[in-house]
Design brief:
Number of strands: 9
CATH class of one domain: Alpha Beta
CATH architecture of one domain: 2-Layer Sandwich
Oligomer: single chain
Strand content: 15-25%
CATH superfamily of one domain: Bira Bifunctional Protein, Domain 2
Bound molecules: serine
Structural class: alpha+beta
Order of helices and strands: HEEEHEHEHEEEEHHHHHH
Length: about 375
């Protein structure tokens, strides 16, 4: 199935089940404690503790996300810096049973079969998620694995906040969908008084799910890497680089560059601007043709709804290209100067040694 069709089907599926469609928020979050938007729940965080503020008890979105944590993995089969996350959310509305049923039903409706699922095994802080385990069992899923906090417990983002066990769905060995049940509120351990973190039950438990569009498309189109899907083929064709890893990095970075610029980030030496600068300079160093690559994205129907401004993207890209060339030129000049100084220093050393030798030998010379 084409990626555009999968997007549409996802939205329709949840809209039909009473979810309000909410557009993606910016890659720059309104939460100053986070640099960039990393998940669909970012814009909804406050609704888990204040459900009455939510535009509807259930919402659905396709969120633009950026994760710097995966930057070194980019170039393999499935990691990206920029990606789109499909998500359905409930703030005090439906909970585990519906969320799990919806996920299974949606995947089946697009012709996909679940390999296995994982549920939270429990530890000394919060118990085994037996309810999710039983729901999967009742739906006929045979392979249900238990996993620990590291994989199957989400949040809170920061030291305090809503959090809870997760259940993850795997297809063709790839983690496709993460379903979070925000049922606790974590209070941090305090320097004085309370010595351990406490997990209090939230008054109204919530659901936060996230499924990477690119991975969903990969399994749906039966490809081994996300770069072979219709989301990446035009970019991969345009990137003339021969090294396979570099080619994937260029394709990933150019999408990230596009969306960061489009959300108002400009290259600089700090915060989001620095992230953008790093991505741009890497692409430039690889010798990629920025103009043509940006044009591929601007012309791609997959991103039509984001109303990307091609002229602006090219302007910012070219400007950085010039700045980088200038910085490189200055850097090279500096290097040449240092080299020259080194040579001078060497000369000086030889000269000094020679004169010491001369003066030593003159001492030994018989006076005439
Ligand atoms: N917040 C979870 C994640 O990002 C589910 O959306 O994986």
């Amino acid at each position: 199935m084409k990626s555009q069709e999968l997007r549409q089907k996802f939205m329709e599926f949840f809209e039909k089940r009473g979810h309000k469609i909410v557009p993606s928020s910016s890659l720059i979050p309104d939460d100053p404690s986070v640099l960039l938007t990393t998940a669909g729940m970012q814009q909804f965080k406050k609704y888990y503790t204040e459900p009455s503020l939510a535009p509807s008890p259930s919402v659905v979105s396709i969120q633009k996300c950026f994760r710097t944590s995966d930057i070194d993995e980019v170039g393999d089969e499935s990691h990206l810096t920029f990606f789109e996350m499909l998500g359905n959310f409930s703030f005090g509305g439906y909970f585990k049973e519906e969320a799990i049923k919806y996920a299974k039903e949606f995947l089946e409706s697009v012709g996909l079969k679940i390999d296995y699922v994982t549920v939270f095994a429990g530890d000394e802080e919060t118990p085994f998620d037996e309810e999710s385990y039983k729901i999967w069992q009742s739906l006929g899923v045979k392979d249900i694995r238990k996993a620990g906090r590291e994989d199957n417990f989400w949040g809170p983002t920061g030291a305090e906040g809503p959090c809870g066990p997760t259940t993850e769905i795997y297809i063709n060995g790839v983690e496709i969908w993460n379903i979070v049940f925000n049922e606790y509120y974590k209070k941090p351990h305090l320097p004085t008084g309370r010595q351990v973190a406490t997990f209090e039950k939230l008054k109204t438990p919530g659901v936060d799910t996230g499924m990477g569009l690119e991975r969903l498309v990969m399994v749906s189109q039966n490809k081994k890497t996300i770069f072979e899907t219709d989301l990446f083929v035009p970019l991969m064709r345009q990137a003339t680089e021969e090294d396979a890893r570099k080619k994937r990095i260029i394709a990933d970075h150019i999408r990230a560059i596009t969306f960061l610029i489009s959300d108002g980030v400009r290259p600089s030496n700090k915060e989001q601007g620095y992230v953008l600068r790093r991505l741009m300079r890497r692409v430039i160093t690889y010798g990629a043709d920025g103009y043509e690559l940006l044009k591929v994205i601007a012309d791609d129907k997959n991103y039509e709804h984001y109303k990307l401004d091609f002229e602006k993207m090219v302007y910012v890209y070219n400007d950085e290209n010039k700045n980088f060339a200038k910085a490189l030129h200055l850097g090279l000049k500096e290097l040449e100067k240092l080299e020259a100084e080194k040579i001078d220093a060497k000369k000086l050393l030889i000269y000094t040694k020679a004169s010491v030798c001369r003066s030593k030998s003159s001492k030994t010379k018989p006076k005439i």
